[in-house]
Amino acid sequence: MSMPVRKPFEILVMNNIAQVGLKRFPAERYRVVEAAADPDAILLRSQDLHAMKIAASLKAIGRAGAGVNNIPVKAMSEHGVPVFNAPGANANAVKELVLAGMLIGARKLAPALEFVRALDGGDAALAQRVEDGKKQFAGMELAQHTLGVIGLGKVGRLVADAAIHLGMNVLGYDPAITAEAARDLPAQLKRVQSIDEVLKASDFVTLHVPLLPQTRNLVNARTLELVRPGAILLNFSREGIVDCESVAQALEANRLKCYVSDFPESRLLGVPGVVALPHLGASTREAEDNCAVMVVEQVREYLENGNVSNAVNFPDATMPRESPYRIAIANANVPNMVAQISATVAKAGLNIHDMLNKSKGGMAYTLVDMDSAATSELVAQLGKIDGVLAVRYLPLRD
Predict the structure, then answer these.
(1) 119 secondary structure, DSSP code
(2) What confidence score (pLDDT) does residue 67 get?
(3) Would you tell me which CATH number, out of the four given (3.30.70.640, 1.10.3720.10, 3.30.70.260, 3.30.420.40), belongs to the domain 315-398?
(4) CB–CB of 64/86 below 8 Å?
(5) Topology (CATH) of 1-89+285-314
(6) pTM here?
(7) Cα(378)–Cα(90) distance, integer angstroms
(8) What is the largest distance, in Å, between two alpha-carbon atoms of the chain?
(9) Residue 38 pairs with which residues in a beta bridge?
(10) pLDDT below 50 — which residues of the chain?
(11) d(C-alpha 384, C-alpha 366), whole Å
């Protein structure tokens, strides 16, 4: 039995995704909608999917940004659904805001603005009040001071490089840095072996790590005891990485001079020394466009060709197409899977033209190109293999 003719892919858009990205879905192959009972893919930014019933039709989720805390990644893995994000697409926007945060803290710009906003009186009186009041806002320059960067991914590296060009000394810490990323580090950056070393030696500390169980409350009462008196802490990563109660106590004890965060928290509202921004890190037109384009291209490539790049729960797996007949299989990373897949294809009387198998933690992914068309029976048999999570047949479209 031959496979049925495929309908256009249905893309459910749950937040405001930049049109420059959405326009990359060809109209003849895709329907981009804001409501769908059986979508093939979901595109979103901040929409929380944890309580949402996920349709059986779902094949992919695309997050137009970096963080995926609003997506039930584990559940998606169990259903063989990749969760794509856009790492690095908003990195320049975040870098620029971190630099602004450093200047806000170093030059006491937030209280200075409040001071000026409260002024009144005629020109002569106003000038005198400005002259008398400005002394309390004397700050420091960035040059010759030390910046500690915790997390040396794309954003961390850009921040480090910019700080070096501003004349700062830069320390960096990231135990999980890849060899490729390490090669991209600025030559002047000094890598250290622990967070403690960063905190003890830095006038500014900026955080650029994902929110994971091991990074939750990474900055806490113990680590804040190590900071240089008068240090400035910046958090443009995720709110859960910093224990806000410990920050409040460190500010009160004058261990921290300023805490600049992109995540307002109720415990820190109104606390002297706290500057909170309304999650502006990626809020630029350029960043939103970059994220939309990147995630749309990744989702489209997966839906059409089964290729995977930048999925947080799947291995990267890209194989050029030399045959029009491809099957993509998401499976648990268990022994003998490739042999079982090969045997099932052979039993169906098909010759394998090419095959790629990649794994990432407990997840594996296999692409199989064949010299002739697959049948629905073959797809069903592959789906019955113990450990297989999802099977898709992807013949090239006309």
Answers:
(1) -
(2) 85
(3) 3.30.70.260
(4) yes
(5) Rossmann fold (3.40.50)
(6) 0.83
(7) 42
(8) 94
(9) none
(10) 1-3
(11) 15
